[in-house]
Amino acid sequence: MIEPAGEAMAKLKFIVLAELALLFCVLVFLFYRTRSQGTLLEGYEVRSTTGVGDNLWKAVGVNVESRRYIDVSGGGEILDDVQAYRSNLLIRNQFDDVDLKVEPIKLNINKSDVMVVLHIQKTGGTTFETYLVRHTNVKPPCHCTKMVSNYKRDVCTCLNDKGQDWMINRHATGWVCGVHADFTELTDCVDTWFNSQDNEHRERRYHYVTLIRDPVIRFISEWLHVRRGATWKECRLHCDGRDASLAEVPFCFDHGTWAGVSFEEFINCSSNMAFNRQTRMLANLSLSDCYRLNSTKTQKERDEIMLQSAKQNLMKSFKFFSPLEYIEEGQLLFEQTFLGFSFTRKMTCKKYSAATNYAVLSEKHWDLVVERNLLDIRLYQFAKDLFLQRLARMNIPVQPRNHESKIVPAGLKYSVVTL
Ligand SMILES: *[C@@H]1O[C@H](CO)[C@@H](O)[C@H](O)[C@H]1NC(C)=O
Ligand SMILES: *[C@@H]1O[C@H](CO)[C@@H](O)[C@H](O)[C@H]1NC(C)=O
Ligand SMILES: *[C@@H]1O[C@H](CO)[C@@H](O)[C@H](O)[C@H]1NC(C)=O
Ligand SMILES: *[C@@H]1O[C@H](CO)[C@@H](O)[C@H](O)[C@H]1NC(C)=O
Hints:
Elements: H1 6-37, E1 44-49, H2 54-60, E2 68-71, E3 77-78, H3 81-86, E4 89-92, H4 97-100, E5 105-106, E6 113-118, H5 125-134, E7 143-144, E8 156-157, E9 167-168, H6 183-196, E10 205-212, H7 215-227, E11 238-239, E12 242-243, H8 263-268, H9 277-282, H10 299-317, E13 318-323, H11 327-337, E14 338-339, E15 356-361, H12 363-372, H13 374-393, E16 406-409, E17 413-418
Parallel strand pairs: 4-16, 5-14, 6-9, 6-10, 10-13
Antiparallel strand pairs: 1-15, 2-17, 3-17, 7-8, 11-12
The structure holds 2-acetamido-2-deoxy-beta-D-glucopyranose (4 copies).
GO cellular component, one term: membrane
Protein name: Heparan-sulfate 6-O-sulfotransferase
InterPro entries: Heparan_SO4-6-sulfoTrfase, P-loop_NTPase, Sulfotransferase
C-alpha cells in the first residue's frame, strides 16, 4: 500500500476533501434545513467561509417558518417519488431477491477482473477515485507520483502482475473513453481501449462501480463548480457511433467558460447537461434515441425510457454503487462485494476548515431545481431504497443521521397539511 508523504498528504486532504466534503456537508446541512424549515433569503447568495459549524448557522440566519408538508397518515392521493423526496420520505420498493443479494466477487486483478469507475460530476467521484488508487490493500499496489501543487490530481499507474491495467480510473488511465464518460460511452469503448493496449491478451470481466448523490445538492454543486469556471465542454456525448452535434446539444455559454454564471442563467439554459445528469449518465442512451433531434418518440417517452434504463443498469449492470450521503456504509458494502479488496482509510464527511463557496437558495429556487431534475429525483429515490435494502441484507448497520428519510410503503396515500 502506498502511504503518501506528509506534505503530499496535507495537499491531498486540502484539495480533494476540502472541495468535496466541505461543500457537501454545508449543502446537505443547508438543504435539509431549507427543506424542513423554509428559508429566510429571497434569491440566493454565494458566500465564502473559512469554516463550518456554528458560524454557518449564524451566517445563514436560520428561521423556523411554517410551510406545507405531507401527512402520510392521510387518505388522499398516492404518494409518488417526487412528493416523497420533497417530504424526506422514501417509498419502499419490492425488489427481486436476485437484485438485493450481493454476490461477492473474488477480485483477481492478475486474471480477468477489471474495475470501471463511472464518475458522475459532483458526486464525490474524485475522492472515491483517489481512495481506489491510494488507500487500498490491492497487490500489486498502484504507484502514484506526489501531487504537484497546481496540478490537482494524482497520477498513478495501477497494473497487475503482468503489467496490464486493471482499473479504468481517471487518476490511473485518464479519461480513456472521454471526459466523465457515461455508461453509453464506457460500454461502447472499454473493450476497444483494452484491446488496443500492448500486453493485453486475456478474457476480461468488467465491474462497473459508481457513486450517486442527492440530485438537488448535486445540481447546486455543479452550478457552483461551473461558476468557478469548470465547463466539461470536452465531453463527447458519444452515442450510436458518433458524438452529439452542436445543433443537438448547444453550449449554454458563448465565451470559453461560464464562470460567474448566476443561478437564473444556469437553470434557464434548456440544453444544460446538469439537468438529470445522473439518469442520463447511467442509462443506455441508445434506447432513447441518443441526442437525435429527429426522434419519433415524444420527450416524455424518451425520458421514461432513459429513467427505466438508468434504474435497470444501476441495479443489474453495476457491481457496486453508493449514495455519497452513505459513503461510510458504501465503503463496507464495497468491501463485501469485492472480496479481498479493502480500504485502508475511511471516507467520511467531517469538519474541514478550508475556504470554499456555498449557496443559500430561496425555497422558490429549490423548487425550480426539483422541477428540472425530476428524473434524477425518481432515480435517486429508487437507488437509495435499493442501497438501503442491500445494506440490510448484508447486515451492514446504517449509522443514525440527523435527517434520516422516513421509509413508507409503496401505494401510501397522503394529504397535504398546511400549518
Ligand atoms: C497478483 O500477483 C502478484 C505477484 O505475483 C501477487 O503478489 C498478488 O497477490 C496477486 N494479486 C492477486 C489479487 O491475486
Ligand atoms: C429565466 O427565465 C425566466 C422565465 O422564462 C425569465 O423570467 C427570467 O428573466 C430568465 N432569467 C434569466 C437570467 O435569463
Ligand atoms: C444499448 O442499447 C442498444 C440498443 O438496444 C443495444 O444494442 C446495446 O447492446 C445496449 N448496450 C448495453 C451496454 O446494454
Ligand atoms: C435522423 O437523423 C439521422 C442523422 O442525424 C439519420 O441518420 C436518421 O436516418 C434520421 N432518422 C429519421 C427517422 O429520419
